[in-house]
């Protein structure tokens, strides 16, 4: 069976508004507390995965009851974060797209690790994005459309040490054949000047972050 899109709900900051994005043919994966979030809002995860150390025994019982499948891991004897476990299981389904939500929170280490998953998806030929109430993050390594999704700013940050050949069209502050290096803030807090902008990259990988306060 071909899977078009997998939505992963992790245990970071979760916005109930994201539930409006769920389509009938989406595969839903809940990572740890993200599974509880889905169940509590009336959704039946196709898969619940994690060590479930952030839920009570009563909440875990609820997750078990309302999930189609559950994979529980020992919180000590595991090498991956719950989100990466969910991500790897999503990749195995060979979807066209993976959406991650609840992957940005107070733990900067987890947030950075989750941003790096965008590159892993790109290397597998899978479209991947991170969504929440305040951010929409994608990765660009060639030519990308940037649609106005209601966020205020568009920032471009290198995920590789150097990104060359950056050309922007449809932005308030255009660039032509520019180079960005890690640590530079030249392309932070740009804005779209049209309903759709375009980002072209020659070499390297560029995070495209739409955000609002």
UniProtKB/TrEMBL annotation:
Pfam families: TPK_B1_binding (PF04265), TPK_catalytic (PF04263). Keywords: ATP-binding, Kinase, Nucleotide-binding, Transferase. SMART domains: TPK_B1_binding. It is an enzyme of class 2 (transferase). InterPro entries: Thi_PPkinase (IPR006282), Thiamin_PyroPKinase_B1-bd (IPR007373), TPK (IPR053149), TPK_B1-bd_sf (IPR036371), TPK_catalytic (IPR007371), TPK_catalytic_sf (IPR036759). GO terms for molecular function: thiamine diphosphokinase activity. Residues 141-207 form the Thiamin pyrophosphokinase thiamin-binding domain. Its EC number is 2.7.6.2. It comes from the Bacteria. This is Thiamine diphosphokinase. The lineage of its organism: Bacteria, Bacillati, Bacillota, Bacilli, Bacillales.
